[in-house]
C-alpha cells in the first residue's frame, strides 16, 4: 500500500495527455468567487472566467464520494455563473420596450451593435411626427443577451416614451426578455435561435416582410436607353430571319428523312436521326414550375433575409437579399415533400436578364469576394507589338468573316429545330455544372429540432435551360 501511495503521489509531467481527460476541478472556482465577493470590488470589475474544456465522458460508479464531488463541482459552477455581468457604458445603448407596439424604441445608440438592426418608423407624437429607430423582438432579446442594450419597460404603453423618463423605468433582465418578449410579433424561440446563430456568425439579418415593404415602392421600371432599344430591335429582326430560314431547312430535312427511311421502335427513331432528336424524344417529364404562392402556406415563406458582412447595407434602402431563409420546426412540419418545395420556390421572384436586382447582387458578391480574398487577380497577357500592314489587316478581316459564315452554317444545319424549342438558347459557359448547381432560385431552409439547428440550401436547377444533350443546345 505504501508503494501504491507513493506512485499515486508522484508528480506527472506537464505535457501529459491524461490531464486533458480528467474532470475539471470546479472547487477552484468557488474559492475565486468567494474571494471576488468578499473583496467588495465594484460592479465594473472583471469577474473570474470559467475555463473552457472539452466534452468529458464518465460512468457513475454508485459510490457516495463521486456524488459528493459532483455536487461540490456543481455548486462551484453555479456560484461562478451567478456573479453579476459587467459591461462598459461606452458601448451600451438604451431603449424602452412597448408591449402595445411590440417594439423597443431606441433612445441612444452607442457602439456598432445598432448599425444594421432595427427599422426607422415614423409615428405621431401629439401634433408632430417623430422618426425613431425601433427594434424587433428578436433584435431586442439578442442585444440584451449580448449585453449591448439596456432595455426597460415603458411607463406609457401605446405612446412614444420620453428620454428623460428612462432612468425611472424598470430594467428588463435576460430571463424576463426570454419569457415576455419572445412570442411577440411572430417571433418564436426557433426563429430567434436562427437569428442569433446568424448574427453571431456576422451576417446582416432582417425580416423579409419589412425588406419587401421598403423595396416595393423603389422598383424602377423606366424606359430603356435608345441604344439598347435599337439593339433589341435589330436582334429581334435577326432572330426572326434566322427562325424562318432554320424552319425551312428543317422542313427539307424532315421530308428527306421520311422519304429515305421509315421509323423504328416505340419512339419512332429513324436510322438517320441525329442524337439530339433521340434525346429530345426521351424527355417525358417537363422541368420547372411557376405557381402562385398560396396564402394558406405562409409558414413556407422566407421569414429572414440575410447578407454577408461586407455588404454595404442601409436600413432605408436595403439591397436585394443574398439568402432567403425559411424557419421550420420538426414538431410542426416533420418532412418536406415535392409540393412544399414548389411553394418555397414560388416565393422567390425570377430574375430577368438585365434586371436591376441582378446587377446589385453581382456587385454584392464581388464586394464580399474582395473582402474575403477569394477573387483571383488575373494577370494581363503581354501584348506583342506587330507592324500592321494593309494586306495583313485585310487578311484578318477575311478570316473573321469566313469563321462567322462557317459558324452560322453549322448552327443552321445542326440545330435546325432549335427555334421551335420552348426554352431560349444561352451562351454555354465553360462549366455548366456551376449554374446547374446554383439554380435559378434558391432558398435556405433552417430546421430546428428541439433546439438543434440545421441550415440546408435547396436550389431549383434549370436542366431545360442548360441542356447537355438534345435539340436546342
TrEMBL record:
UniProt KW Nuclease keyword: yes
GO terms for cellular component: tRNA-intron endonuclease complex
Annotated GO biological process: tRNA-type intron splice site recognition and cleavage
Region of interest called Disordered, as start-end residue ranges on this chain: 1-31
Keywords carried by this UniProt record: Endonuclease, Hydrolase, Nuclease, tRNA processing
Transmembrane regions listed in the UniProt entry: none
InterPro entries membership: tRNA_splic_suSen54 (IPR024337), tRNA_splic_suSen54_N (IPR024336)
Coiled coil: none
Molecular functions (GO terms): endonuclease activity
Limits of the tRNA-splicing endonuclease subunit Sen54 N-terminal domain: 78-153
Matching PANTHER family: TRNA-SPLICING ENDONUCLEASE SUBUNIT SEN54
Family: Belongs to the SEN54 family.
Protein's recorded name: Similar to S.cerevisiae protein SEN54 (Subunit of the tRNA splicing endonuclease)
